[in-house]
Amino acid sequence: KNIERLYKFKTTMNQSVTSGTTSASIWMYYKLSLYLDTLVEVPVAVLRTVDKDILSKRVASRARGMGAMNRSAWDWITRSAANPSSYVPTDDLFTADRQQFYGTLLDDKGARYGVEINGPRRAAWGAPQSVEFQTTPAFSALRTDAPLNDVVRAARYPAVQMVYWMRELSEIAVMDHIFSQQDRVGNIDFVWKWYWVDAEGKIQDRRVKTKVGRDKINQIEMPDDIKAFKPVLLQRTWIGDNDAGMARRYANFAKKTNMVANLRHFNAKVYKNLQALARDLQMNGPMAKNLKSNYGLNAGQYKLLSENTIEVATILRNNCVEGKLRFDLNQGDFLKGQPTLEKVSCDGN
Question: Which pTM was predicted?
Answer without folding.
Answer: 0.95
